[in-house]
């Protein structure tokens, strides 16, 4: 199995060492007596495969190919499927001889793989493979105004310390971000100190290789993190003794940022703690690695393969006094640039360990014959999907995602001692952003507990781009009971409390909102209750059913019952006082 471009590419992916991928490929090529694949082709294969990794993973998992084709491993399969399915749609472009066992292992399942690709592509709203590739490319082109952002990890070093280390001590400080793209006298050795986020530097993208091969990077003192992705922890701003939850933590950029903020740059974090939940076992390992590398393990407790929705602040003493929550759930990723996607996947690439025989009923039934039969073929033809069907697929996906995001947010709002919560996505769609925020604010639990939006945003006062007023207004109009009037200053406040990034100021597409409570009633009224005393059903699940603002419930892809937030219904019944109908936590007698 050795000696072809796929095994070579797989070695680069699996044996990740410091240094940029490009430099590693080129130096290996120069050092080799007998170079095989051209370094440019090898680099392109890896980067393009990583760009489409999520989609290809889905195809691999749903087709069950790994459970019958024992010659394939996950990494090789990713690379082969890229060339087979995406390089030139409709033509097989695997660069191996027709009889090569790896090629045969893929071609045996041609029909099934093509059908799974179509399904995954449509789920993402792309009518054709070309459309998928064009979107990835235009995203990449849109990255020309994004510098290489580097967060100085103050758990390990200081800004001053970095700037006095070679070669940064020879770099020139520029006073505008624009100068990073247009450096003086053709010198690439410039840096810009960000005006919004402390300890964040911007460099020209061309110095990435130097950065990633620097000893400070290997030591976890430099963290490549986009500016917008620093907003949630910066806005949440937990003090040193806070009890914080990072609800959706992997790979861990925001977790380690929180840890640095809580240490106040002096390595002390008082009695504070961060509990980091991550549902996905594979991503939990990445989180663990990142937290250790950043020196945040003293303050972060990782809940590996744990669902935040199953956490119970009333029975778990570690969670009961949570004051701050950072919620950065899975989203459409529509704001992520292709470059970020490919590079972040590359530095964190871990091959999937798929459960043996996953999703392949046929494979379970049969003993593996010497020459495995093709998986159950589905649709031989790749259907041509009209644009309106693609739009419908996207709309369905956004409905599912926003229902899931709202469920997580309502769970966060239910923490009895919580007083500050950030909700963020790397999406540009209002369905995942303003709509979720409005639905959460108008929910019974938010009203009962006195949750508001932090429209002052003192941590980011000077940021100009805020939420979309019309989207806040329309969503609120649809959700309000008909005895409730829409207060326009409330609409304005909510929009002001939403931070949007849309590609300006060196950021990709991003959204953050911060929920606050002025008075923490829980401190005087609420107490822990024993598991057996709890209501038989999740408390706010019941509220969904009673609250007719988001009264429809669907079986969603995540497998749980999620509220639809995009289609509020008008009630015909006489309005009831929603405040009175809200169930509340048991109070101290
Ligand atoms: C957008 S990513 C988080 C990125 C992370 N905050 C960072 O900055 O590095 C969302 C993560 O949430 C995880 N996740 C989704 N639902 C979850 C749940 N119910 N409980 C815990 N983790 C969840 C996903 O597996 C994924 O790793």
From TrEMBL:
Binding site for S-adenosyl-L-methionine: 248-254, 278, 328
Molecular function as annotated in GO: RNA binding; RNA methyltransferase activity
Pfam family, one: NSUN5_fdxn-like
Positions of the catalytic residues: 426
Record family assignment: Belongs to the class I-like SAM-binding methyltransferase superfamily. RsmB/NOP family.
Keywords, sorted A to Z: Methyltransferase, RNA-binding, S-adenosyl-L-methionine, Transferase
Record flagged with keyword Methyltransferase: yes
GO biological process, one term: rRNA base methylation
Compositional bias of kind Basic residues: 568-589
One of the record's GO cellular component terms: nucleolus
Region (Disordered): 357-386, 561-589
Full protein name: S-adenosyl-L-methionine-dependent methyltransferase
Boundaries of every SAM-dependent MTase RsmB/NOP-type domain copy: 138-518
């Amino acid at each position: 199995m050795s000696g072809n471009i796929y095994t070579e590419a797989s070695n680069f992916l699996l044996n990740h060492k410091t240094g940029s991928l490009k430099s590693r490929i080129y130096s290996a090529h120069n050092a080799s007596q007998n170079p095989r694949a051209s370094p440019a082709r090898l680099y392109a294969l890896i980067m393009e495969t990583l760009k489409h990794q999520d989609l290809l993973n889905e195809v691999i998992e749903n087709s069950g190919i790994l459970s019958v084709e024992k010659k394939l491993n996950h990494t090789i399969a990713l690379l082969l499927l890229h060339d087979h399915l995406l390089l030139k749609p409709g033509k097989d472009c695997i660069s191996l001889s027709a009889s090569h066992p790896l090629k045969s292992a893929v071609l045996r399942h041609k029909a099934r793989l093509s059908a799974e690709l179509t399904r995954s592509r449509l789920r993402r709203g792309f009518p054709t493979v070309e459309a998928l590739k064009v979107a990835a490319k235009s995203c990449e082109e849109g990255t020309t105004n994004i510098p290489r952002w580097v967060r100085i990890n103050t758990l390990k070093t200081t800004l001053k310390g970095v700037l006095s280390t070679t070669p940064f001590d020879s770099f020139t400080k520029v006073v505008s971000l624009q100068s990073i793209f247009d450096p003086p006298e053709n010198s690439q050795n410039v840096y810009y100190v960000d005006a919004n986020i402390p300890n964040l530097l911007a460099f020209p993208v061309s110095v990435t290789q130097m950065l990633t091969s620097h000893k400070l990077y290997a030591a976890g003192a430099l963290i490549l993190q986009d500016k917008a992705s620093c907003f949630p922890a910066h806005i949440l701003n937990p003090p040193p003794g806070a009890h914080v939850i990072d609800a959706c933590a992997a790979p861990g950029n925001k977790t380690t940022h929180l840890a640095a903020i809580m240490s106040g740059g002096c390595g002390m974090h008082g009695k504070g703690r961060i509990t980091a939940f991550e549902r996905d076992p594979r991503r939990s390992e990445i989180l663990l690695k990142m937290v250790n590398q950043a020196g945040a393990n003293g303050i972060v407790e990782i809940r590996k393969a744990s669902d935040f929705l199953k956490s119970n602040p009333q029975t778990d003493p570690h969670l009961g006094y949570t004051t701050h929550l950072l919620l950065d759930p899975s989203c459409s990723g529509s704001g992520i640039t292709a470059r970020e996607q490919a590079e972040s996947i590359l530095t964190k690439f871990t091959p999937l360990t798929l459960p043996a025989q996953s999703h392949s009923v046929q494979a379970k039934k049969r003993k593996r014959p010497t020459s495995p039969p093709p998986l159950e073929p589905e649709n031989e033809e790749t259907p041509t999907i009209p644009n309106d069907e693609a739009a419908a697929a996207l709309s369905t996906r956004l409905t599912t995602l926003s229902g899931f995001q709202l469920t997580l947010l309502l769970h966060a709002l239910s923490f009895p001692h919580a007083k500050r919560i950030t909700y963020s996505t790397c999406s540009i769609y209002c369905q995942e952003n303003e709509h979720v925020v409005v639905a959460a604010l108008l929910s019974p639990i938010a009203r009962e507990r006195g949750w508001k939006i932090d429209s002052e945003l003192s941590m980011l006062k000077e940021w100009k781009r805020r939420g979309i007023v019309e989207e806040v207004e329309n969503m609120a109009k649809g959700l309000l009971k008909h005895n409730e009037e829409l207060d326009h200053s409330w609409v304005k406040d909510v929009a002001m409390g939403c931070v949007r990034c849309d590609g300006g100021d060196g950021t990709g597409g991003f959204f953050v909102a911060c929920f606050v409570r002025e008075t923490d009633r829980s401190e005087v009224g609420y107490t822990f209750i024993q598991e057996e005393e709890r209501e038989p059903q999740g408390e706010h699940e019941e509220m969904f059913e009673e609250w007719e603002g988001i009264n429809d419930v669907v079986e969603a892809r995540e497998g749980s019952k999620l509220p639809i937030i995009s289609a509020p219904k008008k009630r015909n019944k006489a309005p009831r006082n929603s405040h009175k109908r809200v169930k509340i936590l048991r109070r101290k007698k």
